[in-house]
Amino acid sequence: MTIWIRDESIDVAVLALIAKPRRHVAKRNGQPHCLRELIVVDECCMPIRLTLWDEFATRIGPSIEDIIAKTPVLVCRRLKVAYHSGICIATRPSSTIDLVDDSGRAQALRQWFNRNCDVLEELINNDGLSIPLNFRSPMVRPDQAGAHLSQLQRSLRC
Question: What residue ranges carry the coiled-coil annotation (predicted)?
Fold first, then answer.
């Protein structure tokens, strides 16, 4: 089980499921900022809200939105962990996000997605919220033999 610590800097590989529209907000300092929220799934089948701030929202956000139907694999580095209605991750100025198609990790995530496509599509159709955003499960991982999301989904209904 992964333990996430507030304000920790983390590196993750995730599948992007949902790209929400870009919007503008004022942060605590009153300055306007641009953001775009993505719903992503990690290897533990946990939907997580990934917030792209400012330059990430305007530069890489549209590229992700253009290919969201292909559930792109994102490799994100130096993201900030936060808690807003559950665990979420967000970019910071030093973050990097790469769209990856050819790495071994990306291929493993893609194979895992293909095995679990029907359940993930249900998650997408429910706007990414059919499983609580703060749910954490070590039960299903792409590197486990025969891992399938329906096992997790059945366990959540109990």
Answer: none
Mean pLDDT of 58-79: 91
What CATH fold (topology level) applies to the domain 9-157?
OB fold (Dihydrolipoamide Acetyltransferase, E2P) (2.40.50)
Neighbours of 138 (CB within 10 A): 10
104-115 helix and 117-125 helix, angle to the nearest 10 degrees: 80
pTM for this entry: 0.71
- Could you state, in order of their start, the residue ranges of all structural domains in the chain? 9-157
Burial environment of residue 54 by CB neighbours within 10 A (0 to 12, 13 to 18, 19 or more): middle
Is there a contact between 44 and 140 (Cβ–Cβ < 8 Å)? yes
122 class by beta-carbon count within 10 Å (0-12 exposed, 13-18 middle, 19+ buried)? middle
> How buried is 6 (Cβ within 10 angstroms: 0-12 exposed, 13-18 middle, 19+ buried)?
exposed
